[in-house]
Amino acid sequence: MSQFIQAARRCATVLGATALLTLPALSATAHANDGYRIWLRYVSVHGAWLHRYRRSASELVPGRARSPTLSAATEELERGLSGMLGRPVPSEPAITRNGAIVLGTPHGTPLLRSLHLGLRTLGKQGYVIRTLQIHGHRVTVIAGNTDVGVLYGVFRFLRQMQTRQPLEPLAIASRPKIRHRVLDFWDNLNGSVERGYAGDSIWKWRELPEYLSPRYIDFARACASVGINGVVLNNVNASPWIVTPLYLAKVAALANVLRPYGIRVYLTVPFSAPITVGKLSSADPLDPAVQAWWRTKVAEIYRAVPDFGGFLMKADSEGEPGPENYGRTQAQGANLLARALAPYHGIVMWRAFVYSTNPHSEDRVRQSYDIFKPLDGKFDRNVIVQVKNGPLDFQPREPFHPLFGAMPHTHLMLELEITKEYLGQQTSLVYLGTLYEEVLRADTWARGPGSTVARVIDGSLYGQHDTAIAGVANIGSDRNWCGSIFNQSNWYVFGRLAWNPDASARTIAAQWVRMTFTNAAGFVRPVVRMMMGSREAVVDYSDPLGLASQMAGTHYGPGPWIAPSKHLPPDWSDTYYSRANAEGIGFDRTASGSDAVAQYAPHVAAEFASLKHCPENLLLWFHHVPWTYRLASGHTVWDSLVLHYVRGVAAVKRMRSTWRGLSRYVDPRRFQLTSAFLTIQLHEAQWWRDASIAYFHSISHLPLPPGVAPPPDSLKAYEAFCIPYLEGTPGNGAACPPDDAPVPR
Ligand code: GCW
User: Fold this and answer.
1) Residue 194: CB within 6 Å of ligand 1?
2) Delimiting residues of CATH 3.90.1330.10 domain(s) in the chain
3) What is the CA(386)–ligand 1 centre distance, in A?
4) How confident is the model at residue 723 (pLDDT cuts 50, 70, 90)?
5) Would the CB of 394 count as within 6 Å of ligand 1?
6) Cα–Cα distance measured from residue 696 to residue 396, given in angstroms and rounded to the nearest whole number
7) Which residue in 258, 195, 213 sits closest to 232, CA to CA?
C-alpha cells in the first residue's frame, strides 16, 4: 500500500459513521420536482460525462478532525456524488485507484500539511480545489484554512459537476471579497413576514427550542452553497420580545443549527428596548443606566450564543424609535450598541434608511445623505452603516445611493432587496442579478474613475476590512422556499455576488439554470436570455425613464394617481414622485429643484444634472421635462413613456411564449407553476400599462403614438380597482372597501 493510501486512511473517518447522522430531508424528498431542492438537486449525470466523472471522482477521503462543519462538508459531497454518479460512495474509503477526493484543512489533515496548496492568501473563508499527483495517485484536494473554507470548496466542486465542467485538472482558488454576507429576515415573531411572499416565516418560534425542523439544515446548506454567512432572524420593525430570555433560548437553538454551516446569527432590537424590556425610563444613548443595560443584555446574549454576530438596527425611521428622540445623532445611537458588543467582536449594522415623513421636507431622497454624511468618521470601528442600493426605497430602478463613496472614514455596507416588494412580489419572473450588477458597477467617482460601489463595499476603495452586504430574504415556509422557482435565482445570485461583487450576473444566471433545471443548451440559452431581460421588462411596464414609486398602496400593481392626503404624507404618495402636471413630468433634482444631484461626486453630479448627458433611464428621476421634450431616440417624452409601457407588456408576452416552448425540458410541476405565474405577470403588466397610460393621459392630454391601443377602461375604473389581500403586506385589506368597484379587464 502506498504511503499516500496509508496517510489517507489514517486521516479518514469511516464513512459509515456519517450515515448515522440525520440526513436532511432534502436528499430523501419524495417530491422531487416541487422546487424544494432548489439548485442542489444533484440529478444523475448521463452519457460521456458520467464516465469522465466516475474516473475523476470515485472515492472520498474526508479529513480526520470530524467537526460538525467537516461532517457537513463530507455529507454534502457524498450526497452530491451519489446523486450525480448514481451510486453510493463506498462506506469505507479504500483508496485503491486514482480519483480520490481528499478534503480537509492543513491543520486537521497531516497529508495536506506537506502540500503547497497556496492557502496562505485565502484567509479564513477561502478554499482551493486542486488536482495533484501524490505518490503516483491522481487526487483532487479540496482544502481550506478552516473547516468552513472546506465546506465552501465542496459546494464549489459540486457546482463544477452540476454544470458539467471538467473535473481535471482543477486549479481553483477563491476567497470572498466581502466579509459579512448576510440575509436579513423581515420575519415577525408571530410567524408573518413583512414583504414576504413565500408563505409564513421559516422560523417556527412556537416549536423552538425543543423542535428543530429539518428545513433549518436545508436552509443552511443552501446558504453555505453560495457563501452566505450571516442571518438576521427578525424584522427590523422589531419586537422587543426577541431579547427576552424566552426568545433568546430559541435564538440559541437556531444558532446551534446554523453554526456548522458557517452561519452566524444576528438580531434586530428596537432602540427603545431599555424601556420596554429593561423598565428604564429612557433609552438615551448617553445615559449611563441605558449603557449599562445594553452591556448586561449583550453579555446575556453571548452566554446563549457565543458567536453571536451583532445587531441590525432600524432607528428614527417609519415610526421606529431612535437616538433622535433624545436629541442624539445616529452615530451616538450606533456607538451605544457598538460599545456593548465590542468586547465580543460583535458588529452593529446601523441602517441609513432614516427619514422623517415631514410634509415640509423638500425631497425625501436627500434625507439619508444629509443626516449621515456629516457623521463620517464618528462611528465606532465595529459599526457598519447599512445603505440601501438607491436613495429612495428598493424601486425597480434608482440611481445608486449618494452615500456610497461619500463616507471614506465609515464602514458602509450595501442593502439589497431579494424579496420583490416593488417588482411584482411572488408571481413575476424578475431576475435581480442585473439590478444588483447595475448598482455594484455604478461608478461613484469618489476617488476618480473606477470608484465603483463594489469597491466601496468590498473595502478596496478606502482600505477597509470589516466589509458587509445584506439582502432582504425572500424565503418562507412555501415548499419551494421562495414562492416561485425563479425567485430562487435571486437568493442564489445575491449569495454569489456577495462572495464576488465583480462576478457576472449572466454567468451566475446560466449556472443557476443548469443546476436548477438542466444543462441542455436548448434550454439554458433561451432561459438565460429571458432572465437577463426580465428586470428591464418590469421597469418598462411600471417605472420607465427614471420614474419611481408609482405603485399601489400594497406595493403591487399601479397607483400613479395616489396623492398626499390627511392620512398619507406626501412622500408616501405617488404624485409626489412623478410630479406630473400640465407642463410635463419628472422630479427636478438639479440646482433649480431639490439639488439632490449635488450629493454625488462632481463628475457624476454634472452628468446627472445635464439634460443632455443624464442617462435616459434616470431622466425623470433627476429632471422635470415638458411632455413634448425630445429624447435621443427622436420620440417625445410622452410617446416614449407610452412605448415603454407597451414594450414591457410585449417582453412579458415573449417570456411566456419562450417558456411555453420549453416544456420538454422541465418536469410538469415546475413547468406549470412558472407558466401560470407568467400568465399572472402578463395580466399585471397589462394592468400597469393600461392604468399608467390612462392616468398620465389625463394629465398630458396628448394623443397616443400611432398603433398604440388605448386602455380599455376609464381612469376611474383603474383607480377604484383594489386587491384587498396580499400576503406580506401590512394592514391587509384596509384600503379596499368591498363595494361595487369595477374590475378592469
Ligand atoms: O420598503 C420599505 C418597506 C417596509 C420596510 C422598510 C424598511 C421593514 O415597505 O415594509 O420595513 O422599507 O426598509 O425598513
Assistant:
1) yes
2) 517-566+640-745
3) 14
4) confident
5) yes
6) 19
7) 258
> Which atom of ligand 1 is least distant from the CA of 388?
13
Q: Catalytic residue, from 320, 398, 421, 438: name it.
A: 421
User: Within 13 Å of residue 505, how many CA atoms lie on the same side as its CB?
Assistant: 23
Contact by Cβ (8 Å): 411, 444? no
pLDDT for 313-367, tens place per residue? 999 999 999 999 999 999 999 999 999 999 999 999 999 999 876 655 679 999 9
CA 655 – CA 647 distance, rounded (Å): 12
CATH 3.20.20.100 holds for 2-174: no
486 lines ligand 1 (CB under 6 A): no
- Contact status, residue 95 vs residue 5, Cβ threshold 8 Å: yes
Instruction: Return the best residue to mutate from 393, 398, 472, 568 for the ligand 1 pocket (most ligand atoms within 8 A of CB).
Output: 393
Contact 270, 333 (CB under 8 A): no
CATH of region 517-566+640-745: 3.90.1330.10
**Cα of 485 to ligand 1 centre, how many Å?**
24
The CATH 3.20.20.80 portion of the chain extends over 180-516
User: Which of 75, 184, 393, 417 is the catalytic position?
Assistant: 393
The x, y and z cell numbers of residue 294, run together, are: 445594553
177 lines ligand 1 (CB under 6 A): no
User: What is the DSSP track for 444-503?
Assistant: --BTBTT-BHHHHHTSTTTT----EEEEE----SSTTSSSSTTTHHHHHHHHHHHH-TTS
Instruction: Spell out the CATH class of 180-516.
Output: alpha beta
Which candidate in 92, 207, 318, 502 is catalytic? Answer: 318
Q: What is the pLDDT of residues 95-118, one digit of tens each?
A: 445 678 989 999 988 888 888 899
Confidence (pLDDT) at 63: 57
- The 3-state DSSP composition of the chain as helix, strand, coil percent (nearest 5) reads 40, 10, 45
* Residue 309 grid cell: 454576530
Q: Is there an atom of ligand 1 within 6 Å of 186 CB? A: yes
Alpha-carbon gap, residue 355 to 476, rounded angstroms: 29
Say yes or no: CB of residue 192 within 6 Å of ligand 1: no
Residue 473, ligand 1, Cβ within 6 A: no
What's the 396 CA to ligand 1 centre distance in angstroms?
15
Per-residue pLDDT at 385 exceeds 90: yes
Q: What residue spans in the chain does CATH classification 3.30.379.10 cover?
A: 2-174
237 CB near ligand 1 (under 6 Å) = yes
Going from the Cα of 420 to the center of ligand 1, the distance in angstroms, rounded, reads 12
Say if residues 406 and 376 touch (Cβ distance below 8 Å): yes
Q: Write down the residue that cell numbers 363595494 correspond to.
A: 739
CA-195 nearest atom, ligand 1: 10
Q: By mean pLDDT, which of 9-23, 334-348, 425-439 is the weakest? A: 9-23
Q: Which residues pair with 129 in a beta bridge?
A: 142, 172
Predicted TM-score of the model (pTM): 0.95
Active site residue 421: yes
